[in-house]
């Protein structure tokens, strides 16, 4: 290996038996390729990161994947190593992110789909907490669906554990003490109010509170409302500096009433946000009760067939047909032709109502990220490309 990532035409093999294929994305961290395990012909994702990176994260990410090994909804890590001037991580190749699915569905999900996602995402976060970790970067980009054409193609996975941190001792289960920090960890749009503002004697200095399990859950609540509403009240705020912008976002979260935030949606969403914001720093959440809120939503809707909105797109053909249209639209745009408009959620719902054949049921599966918008967008694009159906 040289100081450059591999060129697939040279038949590069890393980690003894992982053949590097085509490039599928890149960002501030490095480059990611589609790859193949030569022992079983399985497709994988291969990440390359410069060893001299200012904030290397692949080694820590690999360690966290090993901690999470064997848990449902977490991709398997196959290899970490150093070759030439790069760190290399090999993991499962998955499908697109929930942010991508949100786009395909016209940037709004139905109450049913959000309730189904909530049940699954709460379970994913509970699993992380059971392994003595807090995730600290809840956002739609970090939750992916499975690889198209597999039994897990509509299962929700959680990825990118670069921000994860132990919140208790793995042996004694002693919780970390409360303290205040000077830097934010996570994505401002979704992070909890406490993460923004902190509490205690140093509050006036705007120090940031140490995160715990409650902050992951509150951030999930903000994601649920983002999916329902299409946007959150604190999006688009302007400020002279990033620090001032983060403070304005935190203040807007504080001044936006929970019932206003959840207006027009089932009261269970109000209860979820209220509960997550009232949890104590080291208090264990009642995950079963939280899941029960959204099971009640589905029961009230009398619609719990396990089918997500994106499966109904294009007359039931699903999201992959939309992805194909988007590729064609981009090609037509280059040629100066009018683009194909995205299908809205209403159209998807109508398509579902006109389906003549019964639909097959699917089972429900139970280093700081605040650098710059460019870096976050790059990560999002990388995860967007981690699917065979989009290439």
UniProtKB/TrEMBL annotation:
Binding positions (ATP): 47
Positions with biased composition (Low complexity): 364-376
Gene3D superfamilies cross-referenced by the UniProt entry: Transferase(Phosphotransferase) domain 1
Disordered: annotated span: 337-376
Keyword list, A-Z: ATP-binding, Kinase, Nucleotide-binding, Serine/threonine-protein kinase, Transferase
Gene Ontology MF term list: ATP binding; protein serine/threonine kinase activity
Top enzyme category: transferase
Entry-linked PANTHER family: CASEIN KINASE-RELATED
Record-given protein name: non-specific serine/threonine protein kinase
Lineage, opening ranks: Eukaryota, Fungi, Fungi incertae sedis, Mucoromycota, Mucoromycotina
